[in-house]
Amino acid sequence: MLWTTILLSLEVAFAATLFAFVPAVLTSFLLARKSFPGKPLVESILLAPMVVPPVVTGYLLLVLLGRNGVFGKPLYELTGFSLAFTFQAAVIASLIVSFPLFVRSAKLAIELVDRRLELAASTLGAGPVRVFLTITAPLALPGIVTGAVLTFARSLGEFGATITFAGSIEGETRTLSLAIFSAMQDPSKESETLWLAAISLTISLAAIFLSELLASRLRKRMTGF
To answer: What is the DSSP string of 163-218?
Structure first.
């Protein structure tokens, strides 16, 4: 059970980070470099999961994607598949809650990239995509890496949205946070609770430490100090 829970948590966190990567980087670039009507509103909506209680986020996901939800009901009627209370639901819940952390980190890193370098590349004939891939993204890479790791770590610790939208199904949606909560309800499982909490803390701290180490090395490589 213990290893199943750990592996499931890692799978959910990796999947959430993987699916968040490209959308988060592109969203960060748009918010950092482009102006458009309603931009403050869009940014507020994207960052809302950071301040909205996770249980509310999970409830909204149920309203939208549950079996009787706005989008979930047509999906169920067409395919017979209900997204709620599945592994995919756990990934979506973690993705939604952690996405703003990725966006904020990457957006700040892109804003710090000297726009004169981008303009210089453009005047030399590089198109927007090439400028982004060869100038903007490499210079913002430490912030992008930090955002990805924060997404991973936040996904590991996600509880409220997951238990509301995905439930706590052993072997399918019961991640470390949910397993800790479940074990806490049984006084005879105090040692199990302690082990689960220690493992969760260790994985999260290791992820953050590695991200800081990698970001520091990337900055040194780019700046020389």
So the answer is: HHHT---TTTT--HHHHHHHHHT-GGGHHHHHHHHHHHHHHHHHHHHHHHHHHHHH
